């Protein structure tokens, strides 16, 4: 059952994809700083981690088996953590991570993109519009002033909130524009974060710095070219045009009408020539028989080409574009007017109007009226591609826009490619495989009781604690009772219903307490019994002793036995410390990653020990690096510690 509960299928798919030719350099974040512990902010390029860097001055974290209460890595020892949202969107400092590909993507090839992410379990907010961006320019996120204007290549959950607090693999297909060499992960868009409580989720209660943020971890990123033997998990298939789609007519596409900025600024760094090359490739991909037109504008507008795609259209457009005049002002209205008039059959044609400019022009009432009239009369929608500039008042065109794309010169080909990708319905969604909901609703309880010499005066209290636990556990449980001093003795193995409370009390009272103290033999036998009875059951190992959590943790061999057992089957370990000092029973739980016992309050102890609906999809079963209670204490959270001690004293079972 252990293997079934650990997302076997998604793990296999993730490892399978990684075993293919993963184009992401250091996709598991394992190469770089090799401390093996702690965490580092990712600042310089490849300074902290090979192949990756933070493209902004808001730095994500690289966790390396840290002494912090964050989830353990999906694989290996390292994982990235980023702030992707929070309670105040306008003040949130979004973090990004940018990596390299081993080689550029090939135009028109389909790639499987996979990444693993989770929301930190205490986060009260879930981020939206989280995704992966594949791009040509390494510094695109650094250079663009408003990063919310960037479109991701793939959005996790179709841009909806990500709420999974266990590792989950997101998979999607990508049709390459060609030449993409970099990959970035982060928040793309303007949608607000969503409160977890509003989504019906109650965040995990623990004190840490991440509660007011949408704090995510990232691991195992892969880009694999699709081919024989490549499985892309639960990615949606690339959709095809729906039957009866008005934009697909007799095997051709609706007209493409381009208005191209040819003002003086388009001469910079060969920008207009880059645009020409991109549009020539676009025309080459257009279906034969599709109407296309190109007009340029500066101070005035000029026609370049209008016709139906034929055998020589691509080279003709290339030749005419090479001779186009570049220079002058930016008369957007004249360019749009001429482009709209370049194709007119006197009836609605759903033509795609594409305006490309590097100018920060104003959307005037005349432009709004022109675009609205063309939309209402001919069904034409506008796509606006802006190169490192933003039009003022573009939101007034919202009802008539097919798309607004903000880009850089190096990203032009990808931006133009989106026109056609959206035409055929390519949505860019990274989907995840749903967790298979399975419950271990039958529990076993294995009690290991200290009967050493130091327990002579505590024996009655130990029996009282055992009776309290026996009364609470479900009637369908299997139990075992083992005592120890320097050796162990098995007293009972069987169903709870096979022994009465009176018989249990007499059995424990009849045994003599004496000798030295070594809990390791008793724990070893308890784990062995638990494993032999663990099929389709969740096992709890409960130690009753006068040793506190710190002292128990010094028994390294005992900790290794428990940890190894938890790797083989579903096992949690607990301890009740009974002592006349203070007349208080205290509680602790075994923290598997650190292999030691850590003190907890009574309510947590009872909830974890007696809760029956142990689900394979339950985020509380995600392995974490460090017990949150102890982490809070070490960080000097005095108010938290004071509250914990108060609850412990007031709410604990007092054994009289």
What's the total helix number? 16
- What spatial form do the alpha-carbon principal axes imply? elongated
Low-confidence stretches: 1-19, 239-252, 422-427, 627-640, 652-656
**Nearest-angstrom radius of gyration?**
32 Å
Largest sheet: spatial strand order? 1-3-4-13-6-10-22-9-8-11-5-2
- Residue share in helices? 25-40%
Assembly type: single chain
Mean pLDDT: 83
Report the strand count.
31
What is the beta-strand fraction?
A: 25-35%
Largest sheet: 12 strands, mixed
Structural class per helix/strand content? alpha+beta
N- and C-termini, Cα separation: 41 Å
Structural notes for this entry:
By secondary structure, the protein is α+β, with helices and mostly antiparallel strands. The protein is built from 16 helices and 31 strands. The strands form 6 sheets. The chain has a 12-stranded mixed sheet with strand order 1-3-4-13-6-10-22-9-8-11-5-2, covered by helices on one side. A 7-stranded mixed sheet has the order 26-25-24-27-28-29-30, sandwiched between helices. Strand 29 (586-591) and strand 30 (596-600) form a beta hairpin. The radius of gyration is 32 Å and the shape is elongated.
Summary, kept brief:
The protein is an alpha+beta fold.
Features:
single chain, 656 residues, alpha+beta, twelve-stranded mixed beta sheet, 16 helices, 27% strand, disordered N terminus
């Amino acid at each position: 059952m252990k293997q079934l509960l650990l997302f076997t299928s998604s793990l296999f798919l993730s490892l399978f994809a990684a075993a293919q030719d993963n184009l992401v350099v250091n996709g598991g974040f394992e190469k770089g700083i090799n401390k093996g512990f702690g965490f580092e902010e990712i600042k310089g390029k490849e300074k902290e981690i090979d192949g990756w860097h933070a493209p902004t001055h808001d730095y994500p974290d690289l966790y390396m088996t840290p002494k912090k209460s964050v989830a353990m890595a999906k694989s290996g020892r390292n994982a990235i953590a980023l702030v992707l949202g929070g309670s105040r969107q306008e003040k949130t400092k979004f973090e990004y991570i940018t990596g390299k590909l081993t080689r550029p993507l090939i135009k028109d090839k389909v790639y499987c993109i996979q990444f693993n992410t989770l929301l930190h379990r205490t986060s009260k907010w879930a981020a939206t519009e989280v995704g992966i961006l594949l791009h040509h320019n390494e510094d695109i996120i650094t250079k663009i002033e408003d990063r919310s204007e960037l479109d991701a290549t793939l959005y996790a959950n179709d841009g909806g909130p990500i709420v999974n607090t266990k590792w989950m693999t997101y998979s999607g297909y990508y049709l390459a524009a060609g030449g993409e060499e970099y990959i970035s992960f982060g928040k793309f868009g303007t949608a607000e974060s969503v409160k977890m409580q509003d989504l019906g989720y109650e965040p995990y209660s623990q004190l840490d710095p991440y509660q007011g943020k949408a704090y995510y971890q990232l691991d195992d990123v892969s880009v694999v070219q699709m081919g024989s033997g490549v499985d892309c998990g639960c990615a949606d298939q690339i959709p095809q045009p729906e039957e009866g789609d008005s934009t697909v007519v007799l095997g051709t596409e609706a007209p493409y009408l381009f208005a191209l900025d040819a003002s003086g600024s388009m001469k910079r760094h060969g920008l207009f020539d880059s645009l020409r090359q991109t549009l020539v490739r676009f025309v080459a991909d257009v279906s034969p028989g599709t109407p296309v037109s190109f007009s340029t504008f500066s101070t005035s507008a000029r026609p370049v080409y209008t016709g139906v795609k034929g055998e020589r259209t691509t080279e003709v457009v290339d030749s005419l574009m090479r001779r186009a005049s570049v220079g002058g002002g930016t008369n957007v209205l004249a360019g749009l007017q001429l482009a709209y008039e370049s194709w007119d059959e006197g009836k609605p044609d759903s033509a795609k109007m594409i305006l490309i400019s590097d100018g920060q022009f104003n959307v005037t009432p005349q432009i709004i009226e022109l675009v609205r009239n063309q939309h209402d009369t001919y069904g034409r929608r506008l796509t606006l591609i802006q190169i490192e500039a933003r039009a003022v008042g573009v939101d007034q065109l919202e009802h008539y826009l097919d798309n607004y794309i903000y880009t850089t010169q190096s990203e032009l080909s990808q931006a133009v490619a989106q026109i056609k990708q959206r035409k055929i319905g390519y949505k860019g969604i990274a989907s995840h495989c749903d967790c298979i909901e399975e419950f271990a609703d039958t529990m076993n309880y294995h009690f290991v009781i200290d009967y050493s010499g130091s327990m002579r005066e505590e024996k009655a209290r130990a029996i009282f604690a055992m009776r309290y636990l026996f009364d609470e556990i479900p009637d369908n449980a299997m139990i075992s009772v083992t005592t120890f001093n320097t050796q162990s003795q098995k007293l009972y193995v069987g169903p709870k219903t096979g022994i009465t409370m009176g018989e249990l009390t007499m059995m424990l009272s009849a045994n003599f307490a004496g000798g030295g103290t070594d809990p390791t033999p008793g724990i070893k036998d308890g784990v062995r019994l638990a494993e032999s009875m663990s099929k389709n059951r969740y096992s709890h190992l409960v130690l009753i002793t006068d040793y506190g959590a710190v002292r128990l943790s010094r028994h390294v061999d005992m900790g290794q036995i428990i940890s190894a057992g938890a790797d083989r089957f579903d096992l949690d370990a607990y301890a009740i410390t009974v002592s006349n000092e203070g007349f208080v029973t205290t509680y602790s739980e075994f923290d598997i990653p650190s292999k030691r016992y850590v003190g907890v309050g009574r309510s947590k102890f009872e909830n974890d020990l007696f809760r029956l609906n142990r689900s394979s999809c339950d985020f509380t079963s995600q392995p974490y690096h460090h017990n949150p209670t102890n982490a809070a204490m070490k960080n000097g959270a005095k108010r938290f510690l004071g509250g914990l001690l108060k609850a412990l004293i007031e709410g604990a079972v007092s054994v009289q």
